[in-house]
Design brief:
mainly beta, about 50% strand, 11 strands, 7-stranded mixed beta sheet, globular
Length: about 120
């Protein structure tokens, strides 16, 4: 199982930006789909964004479309979530995840990083 370590969470004012990072423990990632999820207090974990590690179109939740961008650096085994124009409702613990392309279940998860957006 691939280990994922996240970083980049912080407290930011509304309208600000943050970039989350997630380092994977392996370079063999071409068969995976990478994704970001978040969980706000008292709510279920929700999907944020995903993309095939090898490239192609990205998919975003409607709530973040146009503000968030998922990307990766293949040489650093790292995926990113660039978050712009942050809103208080973006406050949550953010998780990165991987699943094998074509499978349903996300099998590797990061430990989570807290993002707090103040109004």
């Amino acid at each position: 199982q691939v280990q994922l370590v996240e970083s980049g969470g912080d407290v930011v004012q509304a309208g600000g930006s943050l970039r989350l990072s997630c380092v994977a423990s392996t370079r063999t990632l071409s068969m995976f789909v990478m994704g970001w999820f978040r969980q706000a207090p008292g709510k279920d974990r929700e999907f944020v964004a995903a993309r095939y590690w090898g490239g192609g179109d990205s998919v975003y939740a409607d709530s973040v479309k146009g503000r968030f961008t998922i990307s990766r650096d293949n040489y650093k085994n790292t995926m990113y979530l660039q978050m712009n124009n942050l809103k208080p409702e973006d406050t949550a613990v953010y998780y990165c995840a991987l699943k094998v392309r074509g499978s349903v279940d996300w099998t590797s998860w990061g430990q989570g990083t807290q993002v707090t957006v103040s109004s």
